[in-house]
UniProtKB/TrEMBL annotation:
Residues 141-162 are annotated as: Disordered. Keywords: Acyltransferase, Cytoplasm, Ribonucleoprotein, Ribosomal protein, Transferase. CDD domains: NAT_SF (cd04301). Coiled coil: none annotated. Belongs to the acetyltransferase family. RimI subfamily. SUPFAM superfamilies: Acyl-CoA N-acyltransferases (Nat). Residues 3-153 form the N-acetyltransferase domain. This is Ribosomal protein S18-alanine N-acetyltransferase. PROSITE patterns: GNAT. InterPro entries: AcTrfase_RimI/Ard1, Acyl_CoA_acyltransferase, GNAT_dom, YpeA/RimI_acetyltransf. The lineage of its organism: Bacteria, Bacillati, Actinomycetota, Actinomycetes, Mycobacteriales. The keyword Calcium does not apply. One of its GO terms (cellular component) is ribosome. Gene3D superfamilies: 3.40.630.30.
Amino acid sequence: MNAQVTAMRPGDAGRCAELEALLFSGDGPWSADAFRSELAHPHNHYVVVRDESGIVIGYAGIALLGTTSDAESEVHTIGVDPTHRRRGLGSVLLAELLRLADGHGGPVFLEVRTDNEAAIALYRREGFEIVGTRRNYYQPSGADAYTMRRPAPPSETEEPQP
């Protein structure tokens, strides 16, 4: 599949909410209004991937926080339509978020359900490490989450480590 990632538009919020309900039904899925609210904040960046007919089949969002001297980013969400999984779309969406984060600078944080082995494996492949556990993080299910961190990439002026 030739996946093209584009900026999420307010008109995409309804479809993203539909996918949320499929993907996160037991953990308070976001509404269309929640997506539109996220889009209204200038530090948030949300993207979508569409199928050949233009239907949103995946989405992702990140917050670019802090200033140049104390920058960090936080992945808010990544979701892929269950009928389009195992095609690399999660990797494509995460790569776009990390591209944005790397341009911003600093480490990247995220939370992931402790039982979501596929997502944890994806994040580990991209350099994330588990740095903590948040008990009962997801509500209303009460599922635990790992906090994961990917360090900032070395700057162009830093010498590579031997």
